[in-house]
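User: Let's play a game. I give you a shape written as C-alpha cells, and you guess the letters that built it. Ready? Here's round one.
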C-alpha cells in the first residue's frame, strides 16, 4: 500500500491524458463516440456522489476525474463538427442498456445488485468505443486510456481495506483500458483483418490476401 494522497497524483495523470484526447478531438484528429462519452460522464459522477455518501474516502477522487474528463471531451466534440463518430443502432442499443443499468443502480436497495448494475452500465457505455477501436483505431487516441489505467492502478495501490465498494470499479477500469490500449496502440483490428495502415493521403486501406500453404 502507498500513501492515500497519491490518488491526487493519479487523478492529475488521468486528467492530463483526457485533456490531450479533448485537444485531439477539437483538432479533428480523434473522433469520440458521443454515446460512450456522455454515459462515461454521467455514470462516474453519479458514482462519485454515492461514494461520498458511503464514506469511500480519497479513492473517490479517481471516480470524479473519470467522470469530469469525459465531460471535457464531450464539449470538445461539439466544438468541432468533425470531431465525432457517427452513431448507429448498435451504439444506441448499448446506450439504452447502460441507462437501464443506471436506473436499476439508483432504485435498488441491494448493495450487491447496485454495484453489479452500475458496473454493467459502465461496461455497456464503453462497448461502442471498444468496437470502434477494433474497426478504426486511427480514430482514437491512446493517451487517455493509458493515463486512466495509471490512475486506476495508483488508486488501487492506496486502498487499505479491500471492499467491493472500493476496488470493483477501479479493477474494471484497469481491465477496460487495457483492452483499449491493446486495440489502439497495437492496431489489433487491422492486423487481424490483414489490412495495411491507412494511406495518409486518404486512400482506403489495402487488404493483404491470405496465401494458402505452398502458394508463391
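Assistant: Ready! My guess for every position:
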Amino acid at each position: 500500500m502507498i500513501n492515500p494522497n497519491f490518488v491526487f497524483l493519479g487523478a492529475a495523470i488521468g486528467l492530463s491524458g483526457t485533456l490531450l484526447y479533448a485537444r485531439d478531438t477539437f483538432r479533428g484528429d480523434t473522433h469520440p463516440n458521443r454515446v460512450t462519452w456522455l454515459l462515461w460522464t454521467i455514470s462516474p459522477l453519479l458514482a462519485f456522489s454515492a461514494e461520498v455518501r458511503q464514506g469511500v474516502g480519497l479513492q473517490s477522487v479517481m471516480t470524479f476525474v473519470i467522470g469530469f474528463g469525459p465531460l471535457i471531451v464531450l464539449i470538445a466534440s461539439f466544438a468541432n463538427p468533425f470531431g465525432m463518430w457517427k452513431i448507429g443502432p448498435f451504439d444506441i442499443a448499448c446506450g439504452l442498456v447502460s441507462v437501464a443499468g443506471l436506473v436499476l443502480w439508483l432504485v435498488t436497495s441491494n448493495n450487491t445488485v447496485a454495484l453489479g448494475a452500475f458496473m454493467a452500465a459502465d461496461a455497456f457505455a464503453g462497448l461502442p468505443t471498444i468496437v470502434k477501436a477494433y474497426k478504426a483505431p486511427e480514430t482514437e487516441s491512446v493517451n487517455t486510456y493509458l493515463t486512466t489505467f495509471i490512475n486506476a492502478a495508483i488508486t488501487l495501490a492506496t486502498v487499505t481495506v479491500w471492499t467491493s465498494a472500493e476496488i470493483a470499479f477501479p479493477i474494471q477500469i484497469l481491465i477496460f483500458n487495457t483492452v483499449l490500449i491493446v486495440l489502439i496502440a497495437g492496431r489489433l483490428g487491422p492486423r487481424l483483418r490483414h489490412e495495411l495502415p491507412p494511406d495518409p493521403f486518404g486512400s482506403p486501406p489495402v487488404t493483404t490476401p491470405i496465401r494458402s500453404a505452398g502458394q508463391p
